[in-house]
Amino acid sequence: MIDLKSKYGFSLIEFINRDLQLDEYTINLISDNCKELTFAKGDIILKQGEVSKYAYFIVSGEGRSFYTDFTGKTTTWLFHFNNASSNIKNLFMVDYKSFLTGKPGTLGIETLSEVKAVRLSYKQVRLLLKYSPLYEKWTRLLNEKVFIVAYNRVFTLLTMNATQRYEKLLAEEPHLLILFSNYYIASYLNITPQSLSRIRKNLVKIPISGHGHVSH
Which of 116, 123, 158, 164 has a CA between 20 and 30 Å from the CA of residue 39? Predict the structure, then answer.
């Protein structure tokens, strides 16, 4: 058994307890079906086209999920980290559709620093769903949040121009400009670093410089 609650200051158990209070049985069941892993900077956790067999709850460090389109252009889909600014889309590293269907995915996942994470396999998740009503209830809540995240991300990329996407980031996720380099911020906005620089120059106020500690 991994004693998640005592081992990590911000654990998977604590995260689930934000939505509902777990009983001792469920806490032990989750602990018994998790594995603690440490990844080095630059590790590829998932390659595009592979089946996403595991979901990783990030404990510390930074990573990103990304996709490459038919032209060969790579776009950062989501950033992954665990701090006071993080939320559901930052905490779990997984190609969710592939994880649920068992079919090859479209996302790649890589670490941008050393990352510590808690891993659950699809089989382990199914076991938790079968034997823990509380975990099953929490999973329904999680699925709703994941759907909203995916909807908002697609809506942003499809309906907003580059400047609007940057302004949205300033309003909703300014912490990303501290955590990640301009290269990755541009990739997240689906623009070139040069375009990002031009957008910043055209804006009257630039609250944060955007020079993060995670560099390309």
Answer: 123
3-state class of 13 per DSSP? helix
Residue closest to 48 by CA, chosen among 101, 93, 105: 105
* Distance (Å, whole) CA 23 – CA 11: 16
Tell me if 51 sits within 8 A of 103, measured CB to CB: yes
pLDDT at 5: 47
Give CA–CA dist 6/74, Å, rounded.
39
Question: Residue 42: what residue type?
Answer: G
Any alpha helices (H) in 117-192, and if so which ranges?
Answer: 122-131, 133-159, 162-172, 176-179, 182-189
| Percent of the chain as helix, strand, coil, to the nearest 5 | 45, 20, 35
Residues listed for the chain: 216
**CA-CA distance, 157 to 166, in Å (whole number)?**
11
Distance CA 196, CA 168 (A): 13
Give the chain's residues under pLDDT 70.
1-10, 204-216
End-to-end CA distance of the chain: 37
In this prediction, residue 10 carries a pLDDT of 44
Residue located via tokens 């993080």: 86
pTM for the model: 0.88
Distances in Å between the alpha carbon of 120 and those of 12, 76, 113, 126, 210? 11, 23, 21, 10, 34
